[in-house]
Fold this sequence. Notes:
The chain is of the alpha+beta class and about 110 residues long.
Amino acid sequence: MNTIKYKEYVGSVDFDDEIDMFHGRVSNMRDVVSFYGSSVKELRAAMKVSIEEYLKFCKERSIEPAKSFSGRVNLRTDPELHRLMSQAAAEAGKSLNSWSIEQLEQAMHS
């Protein structure tokens, strides 16, 4: 999956073979904002229009637009798993945070 950016928003892009177009969706917020294009140039322009329309919609209704994700994830786990994770991080010479991010990234790409 490929991504494109506009302002602080990130669009995840796939090709839709049924309609012979690229389909994008803003992936770093909870609200659904999507866009289509037959080329990268069209896709970028459509993303910009979709986001601007979304922001205009929010402003007209006096609602706060969804913010992009903060990047903070708080996990709760049992103490034994926490110990094992800390041990694995130490053995790798990394902080628990760095080690955890590396593990999550590997899991997302496998």
